[in-house]
Amino acid sequence: MRQGNDSGPLVLLVEDYEDTRLMMRRQLELGGFRVVEASDGREAVERAEKQRPAVILMDLNMPVLDGFTAALRIREREETRGVPIVALTAYDTSEFRAAARAVGCSEYLPKPVAFDQLLSLVSRLSQRSRAEALEAEPA
């Protein structure tokens, strides 16, 4: 597990290809985000529960536990139920989009990912996630 800077919102990056993780992590860190990584869905579920990220970027096709199942498990847990999950996949079809939404993904980005679009989306979702967390805190 690698982490970037110490001050920005935390993003959980779930991707089985190391070179893709490296490229995306660097872009996110340049955008001011802290990044923690997982290389499969099982790690994603564990890290989401322990790290409590502001946003999860989830590849849908991975070994051990796919992104669809990982998203379902993340949604089942009280602690992570409200964390925005962005589905990432090279399969940009209406069926994949519908399946991603059905398991609780908030957004969908086809690969290859346009980094300006990714940073904008993660920024918007992390701000919304932070606002919801502040509202949920007892006064």
Model description:
This protein has 139 residues and is an alpha/beta fold. It is built from 5 helices and 5 strands. The protein has a 5-stranded parallel beta sheet, with helices on both faces. α2 (41-51) runs parallel beside α3 (67-76). It is globular and about 35 Å long. The model has no long low-confidence stretch (mean pLDDT 90).
* Share in β-strands: 15-25%
Low-pLDDT parts are none
SSE order: EHEHEHEHEH
Rg from alpha-carbon coordinates: 14 Å
Strand order of the largest sheet: 2-1-3-4-5
Give a topology summary:
Elements: E1 10-14, H1 18-30, E2 34-38, H2 41-51, E3 55-59, H3 67-76, E4 85-89, H4 94-102, E5 107-110, H5 115-136
Parallel strand pairs: 1-2, 1-3, 3-4, 4-5
Short note summarizing the structure:
With 139 residues, the chain is of the alpha/beta class.
Main attributes of the structure:
alpha/beta; 17% strand; Rossmann fold
